[in-house]
Structures are given as structure tokens and as C-alpha cells.
TrEMBL record:
Alphabetized SUPFAM superfamilies for the sequence: Aldolase (SSF51569)
One of the Pfam families matching this protein, by short name: DHDPS
Signal peptide feature range: none
Keyword Membrane: yes
Protein family: Belongs to the DapA family.
Name this polypeptide is given: Dihydrodipicolinate synthase family protein
Phylogenetic placement of the source organism: Bacteria, Pseudomonadati, Bacteroidota, Flavobacteriia, Flavobacteriales
Length: 381
């Protein structure tokens, strides 16, 4: 891929070693403190806004990012599906079904893939499955892929697994704040976890997903600003569900490689019109073409009548797709000819006749909308 080649080229341009940086900082500390080395307590360290990593420097002011971080690292903008995981009858991963799913995302206009995510039932997979699943997606898709790398509140375990996920060939390894620290821990602990991960993972590109499980932990604008200054972060799946707050984050990331991908489908049109990098929402597992269409046609100052119709369809069916999502999406995919087993490792009740009737009606509505606004709705039947 072009992206991979560019990134490897950038890696070879590094001329400053980690040791040289530490020496430079030590000299500067002495100069700023009358030739006395500053006593770097952890609080002073974080308040000064300085973070060292093998791939960058965390700074609030007075310094510049290292030159090998450029906008060439940006991920493609557009629709990034949060991938489902197809299973066989015995609930092992169905790789033939996964290959069909990848093709469907690609045919529907996706610009990247988020594998091993919440919709993938990542917490119900073991580490070997997470790695194998990610590797399969990377090797069987023409699109860039990101995948989750944090499943422990132990920093060392996360560092080890991040390296393993990166070795599969992904463009970025995604970090989950609500896994990295416990709910009762403050943002200082979270920053400490970010710091140690960046320090021990070299130049591995990273992402962030504000996953609502095991609990919802949002990244505020202030923390996001510090993280994006490191140059290490490329992907941010936002679950704020607050259009104005998302717009603030987009503004913060606007001059960096970090892309803000909105997970809240009612706000995606607002976010992409304010410079957002795209969308990564569960509704894309029902009608990915609609989000690809909004990306291509919905970023203008004034929304066209067709864009409004597409957005209204998404808004009006939010409750339909949210019910029994883990299996409802697979049932809907089968209406489109993907031939997947409608099952899940989650403890979810089976679809009843009413659930199926609502999804059947949704499919009819989607095909009618496609004809009305001239969107090619992918159907393998």
C-alpha cells in the first residue's frame, strides 16, 4: 500500500535518538533553572506538558513536533465500518463469511476498516483470535485497517499485545481508554498509561476508541490536544454524542495527522461538514452505502435535497437497527445476500417475528431510497 511505503520511508528519516533528546532536555532544564537540574516530579512532568516517546515528543508549548511526522501519515477520510465477526455454527470464526463481509464493505464504498472492535465482539474473542482475525482482514482487503490492541489494565500486557497487533500489518493500533484504567482512576492515571504505551511502542501509529464498554470514558478536548501533539495518533472513534463537542475535537485535530471519525450516526452530517475525517458507526452494518454517499456529497455548506433524504432515513431508523444489534445486523446482511449465520457469542435473545418484520420493512425502505436518490444498494442475491 502507498500508505505503508510512505510510513516506512518516514521511519528511516529519524536522525535524533531517544538518548540525544534526553540530553537536550537535561541541558534545557538546567538553563531554565539557573544551571540547576529541575526535580522532575510526575506532576511537574505532566503539567509542563512534556512526554517522551520513541516516536515523538509531547509538548504543550515552546517546542516543535519532530520533523518526521507529516500529514502524509493521515488515514483516508470517509466511511470506516466497525466490522462484525461472522461465526460458524459452533461459534468459531467463519473466515469464508468474513471474506464476503470484507467484499461487501469494499463494494459499498468504505475507505478503511476497523477490525477487532466492539461490533466484532472483541471482548468475546481470545488474543489468538484477535490477532488471527486482524491479520486475515489485512491480508484480504485492499483497504487500510485499524484494530484494537488494549485488553488489560496492566500496561505491560497492553504494550506486548499492541506490538502483536501492529505486526499483522494494520495502519494503526487502537487504544481503549476505559480498558487502560479503572473507572475510579483519574485522568492523571490515564495519561500515565498513554505515556508508558507510547514510550515502549516505538513509532507504532495509534488510534483511540471511546468504547462504552466496560464503561464509557470520554477523552476531553484538553487531553486530546496533548495526545495529538505527539504525532502518534491517526484514528479517533468519537462516541461523545455531542455535535458541538465533536466539532471542538475536530478543530483541535485539524492541523495534525489525527482524524476524528464520528460513531454517532445522527451527528455524522454535522461533523463531516465541520471538517471531520469521517464516520465509524454501527448503522454502517446495515446500510454502508448511505454513509459513503454522505461523505461524497454531504460536506458542502448547503445540504442538497438528496443528502437530506439520506440523513433523514438514517435518523428515522436509529431505533430499528439498535434492537438486538449483534444478530439483527447479520439478519439484515442476509437480506442482502451475504449468507452469514445469524448468531453471536453475546447473550442475546433470538430475533422474533416482530424483529424480522421490522428489518424486512427496513430493507424495502432502503432499496426504495436507493432508487429515489440514485444510490447503488449492494445486493448479492
Amino acid at each position: 500500500m502507498i500508505f505503508k511505503r510512505r510510513y516506512r520511508k518516514l521511519q528511516t528519516q529519524r536522525t535524533v535518538t531517544g538518548l540525544e533528546r534526553l540530553v537536550a532536555w537535561h541541558k534545557q532544564d538546567k538553563a531554565l533553572n539557573n544551571n540547576k537540574p529541575m526535580n522532575w516530579t510526575r506532576r511537574k512532568f505532566l503539567n509542563a506538558g512534556i512526554m517522551t516517546t520513541l516516536g515523538g515528543v509531547w509538548l504543550s508549548s515552546g517546542f516543535e513536533k519532530l520533523s518526521f511526522f507529516t500529514t502524509e501519515n493521515k488515514l483516508p477520510g470517509g466511511f470506516w465500518p466497525v466490522m462484525m465477526t461472522p461465526y460458524k455454527e459452533d461459534l468459531t470464526i467463519d473466515y469464508d463469511g468474513l471474506k464476503r463481509l470484507i467484499r461487501w464493505y469494499e463494494d459499498s464504498g468504505a475507505t478503511g476498516l476497523f477490525a477487532n472492535c466492539g461490533s466484532s465482539e472483541m471482548y468475546d474473542l481470545n488474543n489468538q483470535e484477535r490477532i488471527a482475525l486482524t491479520k486475515f482482514v489485512v491480508e484480504n482487503s485492499k483497504l487500510p485497517v485499524v484494530s484494537t490492541g488494549t485488553f488489560s489494565d496492566q500496561i505491560g500486557e497492553n504494550i506486548d499485545f499492541i506490538k502483536k497487533i501492529h505486526a499483522t500489518g494494520v495502519q494503526a493500533v487502537v487504544l481503549i481508554p476505559s480498558v487502560m484504567v479503572r473507572k475510579d482512576e483519574n485522568n492523571m492515571a490515564l495519561l500515565h498509561s498513554f505515556e508508558n504505551i507510547m514510550k515502549e511502542t516505538g513509532d507504532i501509529p495509534l488510534g483511540i476508541y471511546e468504547c462504552p464498554s466496560p464503561y464509557k470514558r470520554l477523552i476531553g478536548p484538553d487531553i486530546l490536544d496533548q495526545l495529538q501533539k505527539t504525532g502518534r495518533f491517526l484514528y479517533f472513534k468519537d462516541t461523545t454524542c455531542d455535535a458541538e463537542l465533536v466539532a471542538q475535537k475536530i478543530a483541535i485535530a485539524s492541523n495534525s495527522d489525527l482524524g476524528i471519525y464520528n460513531a454517532h450516526s445522527p451527528d455524522v452530517l454535522h461533523s463531516i461538514r465541520h471538517g471531520g475525517a469521517g464516520m465509524s458507526c454501527i448503522a454502517g452494518n446495515f446500510y454502508p452505502e448511505l454513509f459513503s454517499y454522505l461523505w461524497r456529497n454531504g460536506r458542502h455548506k448547503e445540504a442538497s435535497a438528496s443528502v437530506k433524504k439520506v440523513n433523514d432515513f438514517i435518523l428515522s431508523n436509529k431505533s430499528v437497527i439498535g434492537k438486538k444489534y449483534a444478530i439483527g445486523a447479520k439478519y439484515f446482511m442476509n437480506l442482502r445476500g451475504l449468507d452469514l449465520r445469524v448468531n453471536s457469542r453475546k447473550n442475546v435473545s433470538a430475533l422474533d417475528d416482530g424483529d424480522k418484520a421490522r428489518l424486512d420493512t427496513l430493507w424495502k425502505g432502503l432499496t426504495a431510497l436507493g432508487k429515489e436518490v440514485d444510490i447503488d444498494i449492494v445486493n448479492y442475491n
